[in-house]
Fold:
Amino acid sequence: MYKLDLPVDLKESSAIERRRNLELQRQSRIFNAKVRTIGVDLNALEEQSKDRTLRENREQMRDEAFASDMVRNDKIAELLQRRQEQDIRNLNKALNEFRAVHQQPESRREWDIYDPDGKKKDKPARVSDDDPRCGLSSLQKFDGEDLNNKARQKLMQEQMREWSKKQAKEKAAAEARQKEADRLYQLKARELDQRACELAQAEEDCRKAIQASVKDYNKALADEVAEKARLTKEQELDDNFTEMSNHIYGDVLTENPDVAQSAFGPHRVITDRWKGMSPEQLAEIRRIQELQIQEKKRIMDDEKERDNEWERQRLADARAGELMERQQDRVRKDLDKQQVENNAKLAAEQQAQKAFLDREVYTNPPSAAYFDQWNKTSR
Structure:
């Protein structure tokens, strides 16, 4: 039997996995037409790198400015939030202390209703005939048995009076405590507002100092630029005056004929200084021009005779070419007729061959799975 539980070679499996990942990365680069590049434009890449560096520097400066503003605002907001939370904690603490000291469950008027030890403390249903707890629903005392009506009414009135006094005192004490809490809260709020105003004033002073320093720097820079412009203008005026003097007193405007003499011989002149020819030179030039006119006329007559000869030769060649073209047209028509017959014959043979291939040879056409196996690797 074959051993199928052989240990896995981790090194070989890691190498196979690495080659598989490299192949997938290569396919993503080659098959994706948007990221595939052929050749490298170094100038464009350098320009893009410079633009990207400049843009990153500007974004970094802007982000640092925004970050500093955010840090300052966060500190102010954190300070105000801490103070507000401290005020809330102090108010809650005072409220809980008041409730723990002055609002005990035993001191409530309805405590006897939900007292867990009420049954233990309760009296029997009826102690005596004048028991005030025996009402209509107690089934302990019926009509005609109310012997302590006056005492009960008096006791109820006194109890109501005591309850009213106690409620008035509690209400007055609660109002006094609420006023004290409101006064403390207002004092704390004014303190926070004062601190916020101080922080805003400090920030405004810092901004004014920065603006003043920037203004002084801009003024010094503007003075420096104005001084440079003044010096440049003075230098330009001096250069203009010097140039005008050179033109006025130079050999160009004074038309000195000696300045046109060349150092390479008397027959040569300096073109940018030459002021014109002498009458003898002009007469010699006119004589040479007359000779050139006569020579040109003779050459034109010879060329006209040669053109007439070429025209006669062209007409003869045109007649011969027309005869040859007619002969070629007849031959071409015969060839076209023969080609049409051959094409018809070939078309019939191809139709028969295609029908034979479709019926006898191509009996197993490829499916979509056959085409899906291509373009799966970059090699």
